[in-house]
């Protein structure tokens, strides 16, 4: 069974956290562990932008644990990256780490249950980030969880499931690695 370590960076807490961990565990059929919160390293902060450098934080996460398959950081601050203006997540394939900006996903919450919308956004981006770490490429299907969003609206529109094509890709990756057996 895969092990995923979830690391809160900064002020990340709330009743949604337990549900988020359970949903990740259920989706990936993995053991999900939560660490104590860690402060963001000061070297990652850009004073003019008032944001944290996502690639630096993603690399920093691996130093927190080498004994798990993947490390997923959930940051309570906004992130920036040289590749994108709006950063919801940052993925580092070589270190097998991913980082989510909980702060960015808290913007424009609406509806009768805004906390549920926030948790759904976080779950979708966590599933997508871990999917990339498992070898899945971005998907062009706007309803697939592996679709690379450029806005909160695109996160809200996509589902929290893999499309049939991505399900097949994941199955092939698992077969190639010997993680599942073919039954005849």
UniProtKB/TrEMBL annotation:
State one Pfam family annotation: Peptidase_M54
- The protein's superkingdom reads Bacteria
Answer whether the UniProt record assigns the keyword Membrane to this protein: no
Q: Which parts of the chain are coiled coil?
A: none
**Swiss-Prot/TrEMBL keywords:** Hydrolase, Metal-binding, Metalloprotease, Protease, Zinc
Q: Name the InterPro entries for this protein.
A: MetalloPept_cat_dom_sf (IPR024079), Pept_M54_archaemetzincn (IPR012962)
Tell me the Gene Ontology biological-process terms attached to this UniProt entry. Answer: proteolysis
Q: Which GO terms describe its molecular function?
A: metal ion binding; metallopeptidase activity
> Which coenzymes or cofactors are required?
Zn(2+)
Q: What is this protein called?
A: Archaemetzincin
Upper lineage ranks?
Bacteria, Pseudomonadati, Thermodesulfobacteriota, Thermodesulfobacteria, Thermodesulfobacteriales
